[in-house]
Every structure is written in C-alpha cells, then in structure tokens.
Amino acid sequence: MITISDLRKVYRQGNNDVVALDGVSLEVPTGKIHGIVGHSGAGKSTLVRCLTLLDQPTSGTVAVNGKELTNVSDDELRNARRRIGMVFQHANLFDSRTTEQNIAYPLELVGTPKKDVAKKVSELLELVGLTQFAKGYPSQLSGGQRQRVGIARALATDPDVLLCDEPTSALDPQTTNEILELVKELRNRLNITVLIITHEMHVVKQACDSVSLLEAGKIVEHGDIEAVITNPSGRLASTLLPLPGDAPQVDGAGPVVDLLYTGDQATEPVISGIARKFNTDVNVLAGSVEHLGDQQFAHLRVQFAPDADLGAIVEYLKSAGIAVTVKEAK
C-alpha cells in the first residue's frame, strides 16, 4: 500500500517560491494499479522524486505498507527504497551489460550471492518473456524488449510497489498494449501495488483500477474508474469516454441528455427500453461504448421528442444507476 498525506514541495528560485506539490494526499491499496495523469508542469515528475525521497518533501509524509519514509535514517531509507521498484520512460539500461547483467545489477549492489543472483535473474527473465534474450545487449533489443528488461530489473529486489514513470510514452501503440498487459499480469501474479505516472489516457483506460488528475500540484479529481466515468460533472469522464465529434442537437426537437453507465447496463437496450416505457421517440446523437480495464462503459447523447416527460425519464434512468446530465437548449 502507498499512503501519501498532505505532501508539499516548494522550490526556491531566486527570490520566488515555486510550489510544485500543494497538499497531495493519496492512498493506493495493495494489489491495485493507480494512474496519475496531468499535463506537463502539473507536478508529476516532482511527485515521483518525492515518492522515492530523491527529493525531500517540504512537508507531508510518504509511507509504503505503513513504513513512513520521510523521517527515517539514511540506512533505513536505503532499505525502504529497495521496496520500491522504478520503471523509467526509456528503461535506462547499461549499454555495456547484457540483459541478464542489467537485471542482476540491483542484486549485486546489495551483495547478493552469485548463485542466488543467477537463480533470481533466470526467474525474472521467464517472468517477462525474455529468456531467449538473456545474452543480448540493449542495442540488440527492441524498445518493448528494453522496457521488459527495465521491469525485470525493477522487480529484482522483490519490491512491494512498482512505480512507473511514463513507461510507454516512447513506445508504439501495439508495444504499449503489450507492456500494459505485462504490468497487469505481474500485478495479478505478485499482488504488487502499481503507480503509473502518465499523460496518456489510453494507459489509464487499459491498465488502471483508479485514477487521479494532478493539476498545478493538486489532485483535483480522484476515484475508481467506474466512479470517475459515471461522474457527469467531472473532467475525467469526458476525457476517458469522449463523445465522437461535436454531437450536435437537432433544431426544433426536444431536450438533449447525456447518459453515462457501466457494467451490465452497457449491454442493455436502454434506448429502446425508454422508447417503449414512455412511448416517445429517442434520437441518438452520438455515443461510444468501450472497455476500460475489465469493465464495459457507455456514453450516449440522446434527444427526446418535444412532448417527452423529461422529469419522469430522468428519474427512471437515475433509479437504474445511470448518470444523467440534461444539456442546455441551444
């Protein structure tokens, strides 16, 4: 588990204070994959450095599995850092080392016996699907293979947390999907907690159980994927499940409503059900249905006939667990 409480980081630049993190609080349960999204300058890189205590926070605390990292001795901090595996954007491998030597590096640093190193490296190579590339050098590997080496190296010390900093932004779409599937598989097999820092919503859609939106050093939106998707007033909902095009309404027709729903409802004939129950026409203006993580979600914009009983329809939809937003007439 990762627990961040009221984390602040202020840098001094000349005569000015620059607030990079402004009271960030977050908890990621054991075995979950959490995404931190935000534009450049939002504070994502600073958050990574404070999580690993490469930068000392100005105030606040960071804890992994109940062990606070912000107020420990240097020896305790070194030991605690071994419980956090880091995966970087460009893998950061040693060019002069083979795949197996790169994976072995963290174990060599802590004086692990050679026999134990060899056994662990062999297990990790199999785990990430690189056994046949054990003797290869980084220059001989594809981008996805290099990232797999980086993940294996991050797992060498059996960490409790895997911290991934933009792990797929340098990869093509197919390789991105493969790496994200690997991360999910590792989470399932090892019950490891994963924190992914990213600016790519596709990463959140495919891999994350929950997400936070970081903006100007603050978390401005946070929740499980289902919670943020079905929050019609949230910014993450429209970003994760956008409507195609401008989704215009028809002039002279009735009220326009956005619907957000998930799970079994996403496969139910909601529109035809409304038409039958209320004996009204329903025009679908735009819509998208897709899987996010292991769940299916739907986002529709519909327009009813002018004489439709909008109040009754909205009440019916909300009672079925569907998030409803009535659009203002143009």
From TrEMBL:
Q: Name one Pfam family in it.
A: ABC_tran
Q: List GO molecular-function terms, semicolon-separated.
A: ATP binding
Q: Does the keyword Cell division apply?
A: no
Q: Residues in domain ABC transporter?
A: 2-241
Name by which UniProt lists this protein: Methionine import ATP-binding protein MetN
What Gene3D superfamilies does this protein map onto? 3.30.70.260, P-loop containing nucleotide triphosphate hydrolases
On whether Nucleotide-binding is a keyword of this UniProt record, the answer is: yes
Kindly indicate where the leader peptide sits in this chain.
none
- InterPro entries (UniProt xref): AAA+_ATPase, ABC_transporter-like_ATP-bd, ABC_transporter-like_CS, ACT-like_dom_sf, MetN_ABC, MetN_ABC_transporter-like, NIL_domain, P-loop_NTPase
> Which keywords does this Swiss-Prot/TrEMBL entry list?
Amino-acid transport, ATP-binding, Cell membrane, Membrane, Nucleotide-binding, Translocase, Transport
